[in-house]
Amino acid sequence: MPLAPRPLTPTDLPAALALNNAAAPHVNVLDADGLARLWAWAAVALGARGDDGGLLGFLLALPPDLPYDSANYRWVVGRRPQFLYVDRVVVTPGARGRGVGRALYRAALDAARCEGYASVVCEVNERPPNPGSLAFHAALGFGVIGRCDHGPHDKAVVFLERAGAA
């Protein structure tokens, strides 16, 4: 099934919120206001839809100059000058392995290149472990640039980067 991600719109946000929160703990749970704020800040906000128009997945990527109170985002801001930060990419379980995530990332990488970002950066949980996401990002050419352990009762993440967006 060839996918052509389209801009994520305000009418997509309820479905995106449901997908996001069903994917916990691999992404942080959000309320409607939190998702709307990330969507409004996003330099890239994409959705992939199935033949029935239902949302199969979405990606939100942020520029480096936001007042975003995320320890992971702040970690990247302090270490990379010009980046596009993938805050979250979520694919519904039934669509995994069908190219949805790859199509979302391909479109985000194209947008990053067109907008002149030096790299695309994200983080993936190491605690709780998310080996599928680590393998997915490695296959897309992302490499490790650092790690952050938020404490024994919280998440530990690995930061990944793909330099050049082409």
From TrEMBL:
InterPro entries: Acyl_CoA_acyltransferase, Bact_Acetyltransf, GNAT_dom, UCP028520. It comes from the Bacteria. It holds the Pfam family Acetyltransf_1. Residues 3-164 form the N-acetyltransferase domain. Keywords: Acyltransferase, Transferase. One of its GO terms (molecular function) is acyltransferase activity, transferring groups other than amino-acyl groups. The keyword Transferase applies. PROSITE patterns: GNAT. This is N-acetyltransferase domain-containing protein. It comes from Roseospira goensis.
